[in-house]
Structures are given as C-alpha cells and as structure tokens.
C-alpha cells in the first residue's frame, strides 16, 4: 500500500459511509494514542443523527477520489473508556504547542497525517500561513495565482517528535508523560515558554517539574510571572520550591509579593531557610546586604589542603560560588581566601593558614551598592565577600548578581 499523505483539515467534517453506502455521520475528531512514540489513530469522534459518538478507528478506510477523500467504516464499533488518548482537533488544532527545537510557543494551523499499512499516523504540525489558507479553501487557488508571478505560499512544518502538546491534566493525559521533552531545555528557555503561554497552562507545566528544576526555572522568569505563579500554586508546593533556591533569590522574589502572602510562604518554609530569607529582606534595597547570597564556601584556617579538598567533594558546590574559598577562624571572622589552583598545587598536609591570601578585598553588608560597584570594577573581581562590622563573614556578592541588578534598575545605583 503506497503512503497517503493528507491533512486533518481535509477530512474533518467529511461524511463517513458504511459498507452499504449509508451515512454513519460526519467526522468530528480523531483520537491518537500517546502511549507510543509515533501517535497512531485509535478512535474517532463522529457526529451522528443520534448524537456524538466515539468509535474505534480500526475499521476505517480512507481513499482519495477526484481530489476528495472518501471515508468508509466497514464495521463501526463503539469505543469504551480509552486511556492515553490525544484528540487532534480538540487538543492540538488551533492550540498553542511548544516547538522544543525552536524553544518557543507556536499555534497549530493544521496537522499532517500519513496513512500506512499499520494505520493512520500524525507526523507533523503545520504552523505556516498555508495551513490557514487550506482550511479556508484558498490554498490551491492562491497557489495557482502566485505561480504566475513566480511566488509561493510559505509552508512551515514541525515534526511531531519535536513538539510538546500543552493539553491540561484533566484531558486524560498525565503531565509527567506529556511534558517529558521539556526536561531537555535550558531553564531560561523553559521560563520564556511558560511566559508565552496562558497562566493556567503555564502553571500546569511548571507544576509538572520536580522541585529543583522548578526553582531554576522560577529564577529565570520575569517578576510578573514569578508573582503570578507563586500566587496560584498551593502554598506547600511553592514553599518546597523556594527552599531549593538561594536565600537572596528568594528574598528578591518575595519583595514583589504582598505581606500576607510573604508571611504565608515563610511560615511554610523550613525554619533555617525562612530565617535566612527574613534576615536578607530586612536590608534596604540600596545596600550590599540586599544583594548578597548566603551560599558560599568557607573553611577554618586550621584545616589542611587535603581536608579542604575532601570537604569540597562532599559539598559539591555550584560552580558560581567557588571562584574563591574563604578562610575564617573559629568565630567565623574573615581571614583571607584561597583559590582552587592554590589547593591543587599545594602539598596535602599544608595548612590553609599558610597558603591563604590575607590581602583580600571585601565589602560590608551596610555599604552602598554604588560603592560595591566601584570596588568590583576597580579590582576586576568576579566575587567579593561580605562582612559585618566585626569582620564576621556573612555572604558574598557575585558579579552576575551585580550585572543583573544594573540591568533591572537601569543603573540607578551607579547614578546615586
């Protein structure tokens, strides 16, 4: 049997004939299985004289005669409760989907199907202008006219394996199964996609992410979207996600929520995490304390190089907080810093106290951000430790946070 390629729009609404020539009804929708990689038709929704009914697809036959598609069902069998079904017209056509490769949200104008020996398969979606014209019955006439002038109608298809449908969980599709492809995207790309969707769909996708990944995505979102997401999520789930984030990021996000919501979230979070966030939120927005992160690596000066490396292996710190490893005494007073290079080239039994750089540039938590920017620029730093008046190490400020703050504030601190 040769492969017959056709479009959903060309068969929706067509009459379905029985073997004896009588009309069963008109095709309203096609249900495809989501349990396999390539979705194959397993059911059809038919508008009959007795109402809308769902039949199994297995006895359907499609042929093309005189440029039109003829649909014949030899033995219609009503379908029972079907699982893992995606309805092409209801769930995909005219809906927003996610182009995983293009990392963007697009609208489906038509669906390309392929009729093979093993069944009818959905193989691609049409997101181009031709899909719209085809449904209006204008594609062929317009093509003929444009051909005289050497022009064509733009076509744009996305293969089915490169899309992610955004049907909601109440449509009989599990989110964990529906959105598995999104796990391959960078958190920034995923944040952009969620922001392009309507709020309910965006929350559906966001809620399907495990807490650590959800935290990464939330950090990348615009302030308005962060606020909307946190206001809509159950408090317990929102608190679990916030606990996965650095305290300074959480403080920044909560600054944009109303006080009642902030208290609700902080009370739901674990005590230690909540306390860190509360302390950061007490700083005025124009001082260093409001910008610092409490995630940093510090060792006592009495540790050996070997012991410090062993601790690093256990901690597995993020790459952006190990520019410098800070050295403190037993009272957490900042004494100096070492780099990873210092550790690697030193003898294992050497004490950190003997290899640390004591001439370290630092800033106080109550200094202005304006002065911080001048210091970081002058000494070309990628991170700077933050101390209190007693030189106790409180946190660190990363260059990425400074750049973000400048972009967000329109360099208002630099103009103070």
From TrEMBL:
Statement: the UniProt record of this protein carries the keyword Ribonucleoprotein: no
Matches recorded under SMART domains: CBS, MgtE_N
Pfam families from the UniProt entry: CBS (PF00571), MgtE_N (PF03448)
Database matches in InterPro entries: CBS_dom, CBS_dom_sf, Mg_transptr_MgtE_intracell_dom, MgtE_N_sf, MgtE_transporter
UniProt keyword terms in alphabetical order: CBS domain
CDD domains per the UniProt record, alphabetical: CBS_pair_Mg_transporter
CBS domain boundaries: 292-355, 356-412
UniProt keyword GTP-binding, yes or no: no
PANTHER family: MAGNESIUM TRANSPORTER MGTE
Protein name: CBS domain-containing protein
The organism of origin for this protein: Thermoanaerobacterium butyriciformans
Lineage: Bacteria, Bacillati, Bacillota, Clostridia, Thermoanaerobacterales
């Amino acid at each position: 049997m040769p492969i017959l390629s056709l479009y959903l729009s060309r068969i929706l609404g067509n009459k379905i004939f029985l073997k004896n020539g009588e009309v069963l009804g008109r095709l309203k929708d096609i249900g495809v299985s989501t349990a396999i990689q390539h979705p194959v038709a397993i059911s059809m929704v038919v508008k009959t004289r007795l109402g809308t009914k769902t039949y199994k697809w297995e006895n359907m036959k499609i042929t093309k005669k005189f440029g039109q598609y003829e649909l014949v069902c030899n033995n219609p069998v009503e379908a029972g409760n079907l699982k893992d079904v995606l309805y092409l017209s209801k769930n995909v056509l005219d809906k927003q989907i996610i182009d995983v490769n293009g990392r963007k949200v697009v609208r489906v104008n038509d669906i390309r199907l392929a009729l093979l020996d093993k069944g009818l398969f959905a193989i691609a979606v049409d997101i181009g202008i031709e899909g719209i014209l085809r449904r209006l019955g204008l594609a062929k006439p317009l093509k003929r006219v444009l051909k005289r002038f050497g022009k064509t109608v733009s076509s744009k298809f996305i293969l089915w394996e490169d899309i992610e449908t955004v049907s909601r969980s109440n449509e009989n599709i599990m989110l964990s199964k529906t959105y598995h492809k999104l796990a391959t995207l960078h958190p920034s790309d995923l944040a952009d996609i969620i922001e392009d969707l309507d709020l309910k769909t965006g929350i559906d996708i966001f809620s399907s992410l495990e807490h650590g990944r959800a935290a990464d995505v939330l950090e990348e979102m615009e302030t308005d979207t962060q606020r909307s997401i946190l206001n809509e999520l159950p408090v317990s789930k929102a608190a679990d996600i916030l606990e996965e984030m650095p305290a300074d990021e959480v403080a920044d996000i909560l600054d944009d929520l109303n006080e009642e919501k902030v208290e609700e979230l902080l009370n739901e979070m674990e005590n230690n995490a909540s306390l860190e966030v509360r302390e950061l939120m007490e700083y005025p927005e124009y001082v260093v304390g409001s910008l610092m992160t409490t995630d940093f690596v510090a060792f006592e000066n009495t540790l050996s190089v070997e012991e410090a490396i062993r601790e690093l292996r256990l901690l597995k710190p993020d790459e952006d907080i190990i520019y410098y490893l800070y050295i403190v005494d037993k009272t957490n007073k900042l004494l100096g810093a070492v780099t990873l290079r210092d550790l690697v080239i030193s003898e294992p039994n050497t004490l950190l106290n003997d290899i640390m750089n004591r001439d370290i540039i630092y800033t106080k938590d109550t200094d202005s951000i304006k002065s911080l920017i001048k210091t970081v620029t002058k000494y070309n730093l990628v991170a700077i430790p933050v101390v209190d008046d007693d030189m106790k190490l409180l946190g660190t400020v990363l260059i990425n946070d400074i750049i973000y703050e400048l972009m967000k504030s329109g360099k208002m601190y630099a103009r103070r």
